[in-house]
Amino acid sequence: MFPFLDMLPNTAHVKKRKQFREGVGSMTLSRLALIADDERLAVGIQTHIRRQLQRHVPRLNLEESRSHFSREGPLLWLLVISTPVDADRVLRLVQEITLQQLPADLILIKTTPTGPGRGLSALADHFSLCVRWPDDADTLICQLGQQLDGQPELITTNDESAEDAIGRQLLLHTPALISLVERLTLAAQHDVTVLLTGETGTGKTYLARLLHDHSPRTKSPFLAVPCGAIPANLVESTFFGHVRGAFTGATERKLGKFEAVADGTILLDEIDTLPLEQQASLLRVIETGEFEPVGSNETRRSAGRLIVASNWDLEDAVRRGRLREDLYYRLNVMSFHLPPLRERPEDIDSLARGMVGRFTTRFKKDLFTIAPEVLDLLRAYAWPGNLRQMENSLQQAVLMSNGSELLASHLPGVIRDQGQALPVRAGPTLRDNREAMERKAIERALANHGNSRSRAAQVLGISRVTLYKKMKKYGLME
To answer: Which residue of 54, 362, 381, 466 sits 20 to 30 Å from the alpha carbon of 275, by its own alpha carbon?
Structure first.
């Protein structure tokens, strides 16, 4: 009935387009797209790609896709045909792409052995690959993995590295975070201040990028500002800019972050480290959008969206006098907490496989499997440095490997020793092991700091409130 689809290749035979390789270095979110009218089918394909490649593929319907025609438009399009109507629309779409000579690489995904649209047979050469869904799902993943190998899904305006972009995908598409990510993407549509909390290394910056990507501001700048790294006397200049002669060394006018971000998104990380005096200036910007550059009487307005992040419990920071109470209430409009890795054992396997796969490709290793005892050790370890520590540890392990299987002997000693002290296969459960390690860590921190709960909490990277709860849980209260 529709013979052309059977004429197209059903294997990973792909023409390497020069335009694809030349343009991939500047890939942005809009340059990889799934074009499909069937929403349920599209979600299935998106989910499979996300699980296998840790990459989110945005979806457009066939009509919407035309508005993305440009030299800077999608670089790799996945076109889905499930009905005769789809085929007619895809035919017109491919013809337009061809006439405009757009540098797009096209992959056709069909849902039936036969398919609609004889006219498409004349355009068969314009598809680099044709697959049947879901029969050829592995072929699709294999080819996408080759074409997108080592390339970030998104390069943001503050030069997000490929490693950060891939790491972001690994972090955000795990079982324990599905609900959080869904709520965050909904919150992204509402222009309110968002507070992100979580220990160091849990991925708060990644989460802020995700919120920006899913907001109406996605095409505007994203700026991340580490407040803890700014000297106290330069906070206002960094935030609001300065005019020439404002202070010694101010030889020219400089834009501050709130002006440079324009109508984009600004992330203030470690917000509780700001001096109280500068917190008052920040409060004014949040309430009125107004500020003055240092040395100027000219009032300017900020049009950006604010996201703030902290490693600490901000309620505790208010009680200790480190954060203004009125500022806290302005910041805590909508909040999200990223749990530490030790509380997400169900994520360890998928994170480990994704990271090992990435490092295997980067270092040109021949690893094919991860030994079961490696996953046991990874699940049992407390990961005080969270995702950042896990990435570094598995990168080292892959570098140390010399065969087809990643072994426990390749892991850093701190992980191997922890596992030997608390064997995961005999006796206690994984939860028992984690709780035992957590109790020992709390006891050690208290002993090393004269039973000062504030100092112990700081060293452990948790709030005093959290420390009190854990001390009560483990019977450590005096």
So the answer is: 466
106 beta partners: 77, 127
| pLDDT tens column, 168-195 | 555 666 777 888 888 888 899 998 999 9
Looking at the DSSP bridge assignments, the partners of residue 129 are: 107
| Topology of domain 162-337, CATH | Rossmann fold (3.40.50)
pLDDT at 450 over 60: yes
For residue 6, pLDDT beyond 80: no
Cα–Cα dist 54/407, whole Å: 24
Say which CATH class 341-421 falls into. Answer: mainly alpha
Mean pLDDT of the region 280-286: 94
Give the DSSP H/E element, type plus range, for residue 243.
none
pLDDT digits (tens, 9 = 90+) for 90-120: 888 887 777 776 667 788 888 865 444 455 5
Distance CA 109, CA 298 (A): 57
Q: For the domain 430-473, what is the CATH code? A: 1.10.10
Mean pLDDT, the chain, integer:
77
User: Of all helices (H) and strands (E), which one includes residue 152?
Assistant: none
Whether this model's pTM surpasses 0.90 = no
CB 269 within 8 A of CB 226: yes
pLDDT value of residue 148: 62
Q: Which of 131, 10, 166, 144 is nearest to 76 (CA)?
A: 144
Tell me, yes or no, if the two domains 4-147 and 162-337 fold the same way.
yes
| Other CB atoms within 10 A of residue 249 CB | 6
Long-range CB pairs of 243-248 (<8 Å, 24+ gap) are 243/293, 243/294, 243/295, 243/296, 244/295, 245/295, 246/293, 246/294, 246/295, 246/296, 247/294, 247/295
Amino acid at 373: E
How far is it between the farthest Cα atoms of the chain? 82
Of 149, 184, 129, 141, nearest in space to 50 by CA: 141
Helix (H) or strand (E) holding 98: helix 84-99
Q: Per mean pLDDT, which of 251-260, 277-286, 361-370, 411-420 is the most reliable?
A: 277-286
Indicate the CATH number for domain 4-147: 3.40.50.2300
A 10 A CB-CB count for 291 gives 22
Centroid of chain to Cα 259: 25
Q: Where are the alpha helices (DSSP H) in 148-223?
A: 162-172, 178-187, 204-213
